[in-house]
Automatic annotation (TrEMBL):
This is HMG-Y-related protein B-like. GO terms for cellular component: nucleolus; nucleosome. Residues 155-164 have a biased composition (Basic residues). The lineage of its organism: Eukaryota, Viridiplantae, Streptophyta, Embryophyta, Tracheophyta. One of its GO terms (biological process) is negative regulation of DNA recombination. Residues 27-96 form the H15 domain. It is found in: Chromosome; Nucleus.
Length: 194
């Protein structure tokens, strides 16, 4: 057993030595910071488009990963969704700090009027349809026993499968019919001209 493990270890190639790039942690700042710095550096009043932001980042940091364009797209869309960036006509810009917060979808709820002090809340209305008004002097209706069925004499659910009995089996002497529609019987045709 030990010899097998020793031979397997000898067959494996040695691990490649780590390069300086793999040993050093990346000194690249986070993409959100890169994007914000690029937008500030471009300083365009109408905002900066994705290609201008990408070019600015590439000029500033030449050693970007191969998936730079994908990472940039993902981070731009994420920052747009959480409100760190605003997109106007395909241009990204920082949101105006004085702008009101973005309103949610749908109709806003009605403002609730504050109750005067000492007043109690009325009881909450129960769910469902309210009962019909009754005459207080009329006699109480007779109680009906609840039945589990809904008007028919049959029980709920699928009926149990009946076991096959010997009486229901066809006689072996009789001709059994096959499944489906029987073929159409064609009348015998006499030859013409005889």
């Amino acid at each position: 057993m030990e010899t097998d493990e020793a031979t397997n270890l000898q067959l494996l190639p040695p691990a490649p030595p780590q390069t300086q790039e793999q040993q050093q942690p990346s000194i690249l700042p986070q993409y959100q910071n890169l994007i914000m710095a690029a937008i500030e550096a471009l300083n365009d009043p109408n905002g900066s488009n994705k290609s201008a932001i990408s070019k600015q980042i590439e000029d500033t940091y030449p050693d970007l990963p191969a998936s730079h364009s994908k990472l940039l797209s993902d981070h731009l869309s994420k920052m747009k969704q959480i409100g760190q960036l605003v997109m106007v006509k395909n241009n990204y810009m920082k949101p105006d700090p004085n702008a009101p917060p973005k309103r949610g979808r749908g109709r806003p709820p009605k403002p609730k009027e504050p109750l005067p002090p000492g007043a109690e809340l009325p009881p909450a209305r129960p769910r469902g349809r309210p009962p019909k008004p009754r005459d207080p002097f009329a006699p109480a209706p007779p109680a009906k026993p609840k039945s589990s069925s809904s008007g028919t004499g049959r029980p709920r659910g699928r009926p149990p499968k009946r076991a096959k009995t010997a009486a229901s089996a066809p006689d072996s002497g009789a001709v059994t019919r096959g499944r489906g529609r029987p073929p159409k019987v064609k009348p015998a045709v006499e030859p013409v001209g005889c």
